[in-house]
Predict the structure.
Amino acid sequence: MTDMAEDIADIALSRRLLEQFLAVVREGHFGRAAEELGMSQPPLSQSIQRLERMLGVRLLDRGPSGAKPTAAGEVFAADAQRLLDLQTAAVVRARRVADGVEGDIRLGYVSLLSHLHLPAMLRAVAEELPGLRVQLHHGSSAAVADLVRTGALDIGFLRDPARLPAGLVSTVVATERIQAAVPSGHRLADAGEIALAQLRDEDFAMPDPTALPVLAEQVHLACHHAGFTPRAFVLADELSGLFSYVAAGLCVSLLPEGVQHFSTGSVNFLPLRGDAGYLDTTVQAVHRPDADPTVTRLLQAITDFQPLRA
């Protein structure tokens, strides 16, 4: 064992000590943090000083107006929060396995899934696994996938995940067709089914390739197959952003058909035929391969639930 490894092995980071440090960072003041923790300020100050001595780094800059984390303190605070989350997750998983399907499960989701599919998912769990309490966490695709990878979340639901962290497995739980979205006053608004080539001269709200890589690639491939390159009016990193530009009457877009449920009459959705009718977008559940049986049962309940099927 190296000297550094030996030094680290001697550091005892109790949950209470990490919670105290995070309270100071959160409040930016020892007095307010002590009040939050239900203790007096001197013992709290001593605890943080002991933590800094153990780590061998200064975590806080102290001043008359309070305490601010140093660069090292900011990094340590983020890692400390992850440690606490993982400790909690480990306890929850152990109790859940011991108790069968009683307890809590942490579920992550992205963007519009909360309106389109999440209610059906929660109803399926309530009917099939009534003893399971679902804790919800919203985030970007990358953030949700990473929290599942580290174990801070038990399962995540993403739309067309392009690049999952190594070690995660995914299951398709819903499929939607991609349709043309046009402003209600558009020349094709009442046309019904159209060919994508009919939009060749339009300005498009395009998916940001970084945030929505799969949809961005699908749109480009579909338009290329239809014989044109889409003229990008704007890029958006969420489906709600793409929808909003169309609703404003500024452009057209290609969106999953489920988004039409948000329309207030300002956007018309048109099925695509022929060269673009094959486009599908999926909602996928991701979890670790060593997920406990409760995660498997939850996923089975969701995939068996009829309203989620295309």
In short: The longest strand covers residues 169-183. The chain has three domains: 3-79, 101-173+282-308, 174-281.
